[in-house]
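Worked problem 6 (solution included).
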Amino acid sequence: MKLRIIFTFVSAFFLTSCGEHSDYTVSEFSGDYRFYSGIGEFFDCNKKKKFYVADAGISSKLQETYLKLQVKPKEDVFIKIKGYLKEEAQKVEGINPNLVFVPVKLISVDEDRGCTYPIREGE
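Solution. The predicted structure is:
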Protein backbone atom coordinates (compact mmCIF):
# COMPACT_ATOMS: atom_id res chain seq x y z
CA MET A 1 0.00 0.00 0.00
CA LYS A 2 2.80 2.46 0.90
CA LEU A 3 4.56 1.72 -2.38
CA ARG A 4 1.38 2.51 -4.30
CA ILE A 5 0.94 5.83 -2.47
CA ILE A 6 4.56 6.79 -3.14
CA PHE A 7 4.22 5.81 -6.81
CA THR A 8 1.06 7.92 -7.14
CA PHE A 9 2.73 10.91 -5.50
CA VAL A 10 5.86 10.64 -7.67
CA SER A 11 3.78 10.21 -10.84
CA ALA A 12 1.66 13.24 -10.00
CA PHE A 13 4.79 15.30 -9.30
CA PHE A 14 6.37 14.47 -12.66
CA LEU A 15 3.16 15.06 -14.58
CA THR A 16 2.67 18.50 -13.04
CA SER A 17 6.31 19.53 -13.43
CA CYS A 18 6.29 18.52 -17.11
CA GLY A 19 3.09 20.50 -17.65
CA GLU A 20 4.57 23.71 -16.23
CA HIS A 21 5.94 24.74 -19.64
CA SER A 22 3.49 22.94 -21.93
CA ASP A 23 1.67 26.12 -23.05
CA TYR A 24 4.89 27.72 -24.32
CA THR A 25 7.35 27.11 -27.14
CA VAL A 26 10.73 26.35 -25.60
CA SER A 27 13.60 27.62 -27.78
CA GLU A 28 17.36 27.94 -27.53
CA PHE A 29 18.68 31.36 -26.52
CA SER A 30 22.18 32.75 -26.07
CA GLY A 31 23.14 35.88 -24.23
CA ASP A 32 24.53 37.50 -21.11
CA TYR A 33 23.23 36.60 -17.67
CA ARG A 34 23.82 38.29 -14.34
CA PHE A 35 22.35 37.98 -10.88
CA TYR A 36 22.57 40.65 -8.19
CA SER A 37 20.39 42.12 -5.47
CA GLY A 38 18.08 39.13 -5.79
CA ILE A 39 17.31 39.82 -9.47
CA GLY A 40 18.30 37.76 -12.50
CA GLU A 41 18.74 39.52 -15.84
CA PHE A 42 19.17 37.98 -19.27
CA PHE A 43 20.34 40.00 -22.28
CA ASP A 44 19.40 38.19 -25.50
CA CYS A 45 22.22 38.74 -28.02
CA ASN A 46 19.95 38.15 -31.04
CA LYS A 47 17.01 40.31 -29.94
CA LYS A 48 19.37 42.91 -28.40
CA LYS A 49 17.01 43.21 -25.46
CA LYS A 50 17.22 42.71 -21.70
CA PHE A 51 14.65 40.58 -19.87
CA TYR A 52 14.23 39.93 -16.18
CA VAL A 53 14.39 36.25 -15.30
CA ALA A 54 11.13 34.90 -13.87
CA ASP A 55 11.18 32.99 -10.61
CA ALA A 56 10.20 29.81 -12.47
CA GLY A 57 11.74 26.91 -14.33
CA ILE A 58 15.41 26.47 -13.38
CA SER A 59 15.96 30.07 -12.26
CA SER A 60 17.31 28.98 -8.85
CA LYS A 61 19.76 26.54 -10.51
CA LEU A 62 20.88 29.33 -12.83
CA GLN A 63 21.45 31.66 -9.84
CA GLU A 64 23.48 28.99 -8.02
CA THR A 65 25.62 28.35 -11.09
CA TYR A 66 26.30 32.07 -11.49
CA LEU A 67 27.16 32.58 -7.81
CA LYS A 68 29.55 29.59 -7.80
CA LEU A 69 31.58 31.27 -10.56
CA GLN A 70 32.38 34.09 -8.11
CA VAL A 71 32.47 36.76 -10.81
CA LYS A 72 32.58 40.42 -9.84
CA PRO A 73 29.23 41.98 -8.81
CA LYS A 74 27.05 42.87 -11.81
CA GLU A 75 29.47 41.03 -14.13
CA ASP A 76 27.89 39.11 -17.01
CA VAL A 77 28.50 35.51 -18.04
CA PHE A 78 27.59 34.19 -21.47
CA ILE A 79 25.05 31.37 -21.43
CA LYS A 80 23.37 29.10 -23.92
CA ILE A 81 20.03 28.08 -22.52
CA LYS A 82 16.62 26.75 -23.43
CA GLY A 83 13.66 28.77 -22.30
CA TYR A 84 10.80 31.00 -23.37
CA LEU A 85 9.38 34.49 -22.96
CA LYS A 86 6.07 35.03 -21.20
CA GLU A 87 3.99 37.92 -19.99
CA GLU A 88 4.00 38.38 -16.26
CA ALA A 89 1.33 40.50 -14.64
CA GLN A 90 2.50 43.53 -12.70
CA LYS A 91 1.80 43.75 -8.98
CA VAL A 92 0.47 47.29 -9.40
CA GLU A 93 -2.96 47.49 -11.00
CA GLY A 94 -3.16 49.37 -14.28
CA ILE A 95 0.42 48.70 -15.38
CA ASN A 96 0.92 46.59 -18.49
CA PRO A 97 2.45 43.14 -18.01
CA ASN A 98 6.20 42.64 -18.43
CA LEU A 99 7.77 40.16 -20.80
CA VAL A 100 10.06 37.93 -18.71
CA PHE A 101 12.44 35.10 -19.55
CA VAL A 102 11.74 31.63 -18.12
CA PRO A 103 14.85 29.39 -18.15
CA VAL A 104 14.15 25.70 -18.68
CA LYS A 105 17.48 23.98 -19.40
CA LEU A 106 21.03 25.31 -19.04
CA ILE A 107 23.23 24.24 -21.95
CA SER A 108 26.53 26.02 -21.25
CA VAL A 109 28.17 28.88 -19.35
CA ASP A 110 31.23 30.84 -20.49
CA GLU A 111 32.79 33.56 -18.33
CA ASP A 112 35.14 34.71 -21.10
CA ARG A 113 32.66 35.28 -23.89
CA GLY A 114 29.55 37.37 -24.19
CA CYS A 115 27.49 39.60 -26.43
CA THR A 116 29.54 42.31 -28.07
CA TYR A 117 29.20 45.53 -26.12
CA PRO A 118 28.41 47.88 -29.05
CA ILE A 119 25.03 46.16 -29.49
CA ARG A 120 24.25 46.77 -25.82
CA GLU A 121 24.50 50.54 -26.03
CA GLY A 122 21.35 52.26 -24.86
CA GLU A 123 20.24 49.21 -22.88
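Discussion: Confidence is low (pLDDT under 50) at residues 1-17, 119-123.
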